[in-house]
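## tool: complex_structure
## caller: assistant
## args:
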Amino acid sequence: MRGGLWLLAWNHVLYNRAQTVILTLCLAVTMCIPMTTRMLIGLYESDLRARAQATPLLAGARGNRFDLSLAALYFRHSELEPMPYGEFESISREAAGVCVPISVRFTAQGYPVVGTSADYFSVRGMQPATGELPQLIGDAVVGWDVAQDLGLSAGDSLFSDPVDLYDIAKPSALKMHVTGVLARTGSPDDRAVFTDIKSAWVLEGISHGHQDVVNEPLDPQMVIGKTDELVAVSLALMEYNEVTPENAWTFHTHADPSTLPLTAVLVWPTDAKSGTILKGKVNQKRLYQMVIPSEVISDLMAFVFRIQALFDSLSVILGLSTMMLIVLVMLLSARIRSREFMTLNRIGCSRFTVLKLYAMELGLILFLSVILAVGAATGTAKALPDLVHLVS
Amino acid sequence: MSVASQIQETDSEHLVPMVHLRHVEFEYDGGRHAQGVAGAVGVSAGFRLSIENLVVEQGGRAACIGASGTGKTTLVNLIAGILVPDAGTVYLGPIEMSELSDEQRRSIRVSMIGMVFQEFELLEYLSAGDNILLPYYIASARARAGIPRKYRGETPDGGPAGLLLTTEVRRRAARLADEMRIGHLLKRKPSRLSQGERQRVAICRALVVEPQLVICDEPTGNLDPDTARITLDMLFDQADRSGATLLMVTHNHGYLERFNQTIDMAELAGDMGTERVIAADREGDVS
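## result:
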């Protein structure tokens, strides 16, 4: 009988296609929303945590530690106060381990330009898929997704995004030479452009290259003042917007190197003890802060989970209202099908069997809904770009 | 000779009864039998049916006639075990239906009784073939096992075989459909069948379990005369082949000569209080 009842139920579900599709969609949407939310938050959490746990310590300007972590680990744009390069040197001296400077203040074609040192690639285990890591000022290696999106490969060029097109005092776009494409990592590194930290300062306009105003003849209109040792020139003097072998030697910095800006310093201490000591020392100065990214991300996730709890509550309400509607539909359907049920009863079918048949039909619709909801949730989770990238 | 004049009191002593009602009292009083049930079977609440003695012989052809509301459907529902009498006994062969539980009566109904309705009552979402096999889909394998042990050995098929959908059953259903000339329509849904074809599917559904009793509630009521005649021919032919007892509710007195027994509800209605259901034997050997 059981097989026979399933056949009846399946035929009924198939025969009433429109009703089945509507009910299935209603239930699937009701299930899909919390399912998708949970999957996405799970994905978001695992990505955030993995990245944070791979970075033991992080130093930066005092202020919002979430902004600091998101900027340094996920290259999210922020308005953080810069940290001077001298602090990096200080931390490097005190730390037993690897220290990496990070500057994330500019973009190229919308992708963050990360100024860092060669150590970044080794501690993150990043290798170029093609080409090589940047060796000179003005060189850049691009993440896998950047290369795919912009169609870049080693030997191509990439302009940084100008800060202000109409202000000639602001640094102009720098034409960077792509030396390689990094292998895919599945992390925010795939969607970033990496340069040497000195190149980042060129983007800042702190370092620049221009015509030799001391030894080469200069348009007199460009000269504002002149002594035996120094020449003051107009801001209208064109700076190089590309580093070439011919002009590389002209690039220089007027400021004290220890004051040059960084976004953060990533630290991989040799052991937990030295990390704890370093953290204490940095935080004691009160000028800057050193945080443990995994703790920051845990706190951040606590906020996310609160939002998820709200979503869950809403989903329960949505689920209940849908269930009530389904029950109403089933009751109305039972009324419409009373003649059919009476026939079954007269032939010899018990009321319990009729109820079973009804439950089987609902079960089939539920089954289809679950398949649809799981498929949709999985598809959404896969189709949506990595949420970590959305926040970076 | 009028129908009424042919009616004579049944002498159950000389018959091998397939159906036997004795001192049956039934009333739709709104209590034990809900008003909804009364409405569903076409009578009003407060309707009372009393049957002193009614026998339909095994293999017999009995017609139940009478105006609307006289209790024809109530009578067949009592016989089929859909309704339970307030008093008296209903026998189906050796089985006393009125002492069985609802589940046991359903087991009897699905495995021993074939039912044909005026409105065909086919399930629109099943193909004609699946409609024919419907009793096998809804009945448990324990259907015949549900018959009380003391009656099992006495059931005409000799025991609790169970209502299992086997290849043989499918073959039988197909053969039945061929004989009813709907063999080529088995994959069609009822909505794509003519009225006559639908009723033949319903008849196949009633006969596929090889029932001992076939109860037809105005099976030709929705058919045109020609289709009705053909359908009845087929029904009688199949009943003859299987040896099943046939009890048919009908309004059409033109068919009565094909039955060997007539149950006139009008007679009953005119004799309320000292009710007797009277059976007539066309052959005149029952008196």
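## assistant note: Strands of chain B lie at 17-27, 48-57, 61-65, 87-92, 95-96, 113-117, 213-217, 245-249, 261-264, 279-281. Chain B has one domain: 3-281. Handing back to user.
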